[in-house]
Predict the 3D structure of the following.
Amino acid sequence: MTTHRIRVGIDVGGTFTDAVAVDATTLELLGQVKVPTSHHHEDGVAHGIVEALDRLLEETGRAPGDVAFLAHGTTQATNALLEGDVATVGLIGIGGGAAAALTRRLAALGKLELTPGKSLPLAYAHVADPDDADSVRRAADTLAQDGAQVLVATEPFSVDRPEGEQAVVAAARSAGLPLTAAHEITSLYGLHKRTRTAVVNAAILPRMLATADLVDSSITKAGVESPLMVMRCDGGVMSLDEMRRRPLLTVLSGPAAGVAGALMQERISEGVFLETGGTSTDISVVRRGKVAVQHATILGKKSYLNALDVRTVGVGGGSMVRIGGGKVTGVGPRSAHIAGLPYACFATLDDLRDARLTTVRPMADDPEDYAVIDAAGGRFALTMTCAANALGRVPEGDFARSDQEVAGAALAPLAAALGVDVATAAARLLDAGTGQVKKVVDTMIRDYRLDKDTALLVGGGGGAASVTPHLAEVSGLEGRIARHSEVISPIGVALALVREQIERTIPGAGQEQILAVRAEAEAAVIAQGAAADGVEVEVTVDPQTSTVRAVATGATELRTRDRAHRADEAERLRTAAASLKTDASRVTVLARTSAHTVYGTEVRRTLRATRHPVRIVDADGVIRLHVPDARVETTRVADAPDVLAKLVRETTSYGDGGVRAPAVRLLLGSRIADLSGVLDPGPLLALARSELDSRAADETVVAVLEVRI
């Protein structure tokens, strides 16, 4: 029997470090371990990472040489900013005349508040001429004497003219400190925001470098030959060398690991992911097979850091119910963990004898309206998990499962106080908790224009069953709990793709400039270990901000999923019909490639208006793309440029907003090339040609075009 190699994902949390082993071929979970996060060890969190890896290999019976992929996610950078545990940054401003006035104002970045009463430690020095090496060295030495542990060089217009920052970095190396140039961290216009992003990156750089070196040396010493990757805040992973350059990309990466797991394991193409812990729920969006990202707010200010758009609600599996006036008044934000109480549903029936309802203050300043029960076995908290178990909403084998009879007995005193039966009391408790989550979910569905008919709710985290099933029922959306939900984050780390995003501000960007940004992103992920043949690049051009953005993703090895079962034609048809909300007899196969089938139907709105919704289904029977109204054409690679030019010409719209080419996706082999981010027909067709260049002339190409209105 062939033993496949494994992919290892390690998620470093505030309390525990979780590690999983996933079969590199079938992507099935093989083993999982949990160890305490080693914050106070002399090697810091690096010790816990290595300990988790050692225990995982022992449990699964694998050797270090069996590890094909190893990545870890960490909250270290986020915690450093939250706790104010950062390095002193030496900022070297560059320029003379008017430019000097602009850069000198950047000394005010030292007023950024890290924690109440503690500001970002920053020292400022100025050089008028970046080519005056002696002046630069004196400035760097002065900053080092003032306590700087890392240096940043910044100059107006360095995005277009980086030579000044590069000269300062070269000359300042004599100070012996880590160095960065602001334009290397982000290449978008805006001196203040660009420098602020670079300064925050530098503030966590020394600490992250030390951890990276420790982990790297320990993993190498253990005999693991695969390069170590690190989770990014946008749902991908990056090489350790890239993390050493831009550790800021690991900030807010905790929630990104969970949604990456949902995206890769659960194969969500359209929906909302809810990662529920004991105290809170992180909510994020997957739209058309991609995680939703935005420029993150750090230290109260917008940055140029692209991070998962995650919104947090203070409701989790351990959230306690609040009562008053004979009714449920709310749930949370305090949890059983904060109150130091056990969940009532995990007691025994004997423990719950003579249970009596009372209220407490979990913290000294809290109102005294949090419901608990005092019983023979002590005091217990009434939580969301108790209510979910009482209603039978927690599936067999789930991390949060308890005996339903015990959960019902725990809620009986609350039901009596409310004058209702146990099921109604449990439902009211869940209504109060999930109502808070529902408001945010509804907002995100609206913000990202998700199709409510196809949007899926997927729950992850140890408390998933306390929120997702009830929310699905009250909202009318389809919902499910992710497999292995309690370790969805390390699974996401193990399955994540190498990712790189390149952003450039290019007024009036032409075809060559757009293709150059695309090529840069592709080269970046290949340099970090992605297999060249599997890299996919999505390009977006925003004419309002003149921003060209290319997001490249790829696996560190080309994977072929050796599944015993692939969905047959009938199963794929049923899946498409269910998503299209119609009978299978009204669904037509519009096109096929070796990996995908395109299904469509016709929806007549009026006598003159008809929509043609489309679903693209892969060989596993998973819907990879929803398009509400599309035109589908099949051709060959050799003919595709002419065919696409004709199609784009016929479907481009013109109006007050300017020229708007259709949203185009190309199905090529196993890939879906997404060109929907480009509005101008010329660059769109140029990008399409770049996707076709390496393909065989007789290969089938399916074009899916969505007219923009």
Summary: The radius of gyration is 27 Å.
